[in-house]
Amino acid sequence: MSASAERLPQAIVCQAIEWQMRLRDHPDHAELHAQLQAWRQRDGRHELAWQRMRQLSGQFQASQLPDAVQTSALLRRAETDVSRRRLLKLLGVGLAVGSTTLLVSKAPPGWRSDFATATGERRQLDLGSDLQVTLNSNSALDVQGRELILRSGEVLLDGNAWRASCRFALCEGQQARAVLREREGYSELHVERGEVRVTANSGSRTVQAGSGLAIEAGGLRELAPGALDPFAWSRGLLIVSDIRLDDFLAEAGRYRQGWLGCDAEVAALRLSGVFRLDEPALMLRNISHLLPVRVVERTRWWVRVAHA
Known about the structure:
Layout: H1 10-25, H2 30-42, H3 44-54, H4 68-78, H5 84-95, H6 103-106, E1 115-116, E2 123-125, E3 132-135, E4 140-144, E5 147-152, E6 154-165, E7 169-183, E8 186-200, E9 203-208, E10 212-216, E11 219-223, E12 237-244, H7 245-252, E13 259-262, E14 270-276, H8 280-290, E15 293-299, E16 302-307
Parallel strand pairs: 5-6, 13-16
Antiparallel strand pairs: 1-4, 2-3, 3-6, 4-5, 6-7, 7-8, 8-9, 8-10, 10-11, 12-14, 15-16
Helix pairs in contact: 1-3, 1-4, 2-3, 4-5
GO molecular function, one term: sigma factor antagonist activity
Protein name: Protein FecR
Domain FecR N-terminal: 15-56
């Protein structure tokens, strides 16, 4: 099959769309261009997806484009069509829907941040210091002087002295390796080494190695050890111990496009294991070996786990 006719994975198509949208928003952002170049060089399919997106450059303004989900579906349909006119016609169908809504108003935080990752992407950042910073899937981070600001998602910080803020607090690490994550309604901190001082409107607390803290608008709450290893993702792994199946799927779903869930009758089943984040299809197959379930995949975007 020629490169021009090759079908690309849905996740890669979506990532190319995200890069296109981010560049439209920040065309002169040097760091963003460097991130894009690294992404293109990482995989030949990335470069192919980007070249296909570039074929459409200049045809539409950002305010006219549909959201990423609509656009990706149209691009997938157009992949085997060699006619540029047909491609633009397909895109035109999507543009007719909700054309008065600005894309920028729907853009996730990552499109407006200094550093960001797409769904399924993990990235180490070079900030020119002795601090090691790693962004997890679908995360966004800003840098203001010596302070890092987590806008969404999750970040791992490892260094002698660092300052990082989340939604409700400022975290200051000393000889610390820690993970900071934004969850629904609260932020979460886990410390693997050293100590982190957390300062919020509701008070302050020092979190020692091996401990976790939930940071909420109304206070600070100590977290007991959970079923999920909070640091494993930085090594490309999802490590769980006696976790509910629905909770496992919610976590695994952070690293893939589309919907991933299960029927209520199997939600409470529990599993333990080590899974590779870069092999989502194998991860799902392994579930059926560990539990009496089957994986129902209607499309790449809709996967359900049901009773076997």
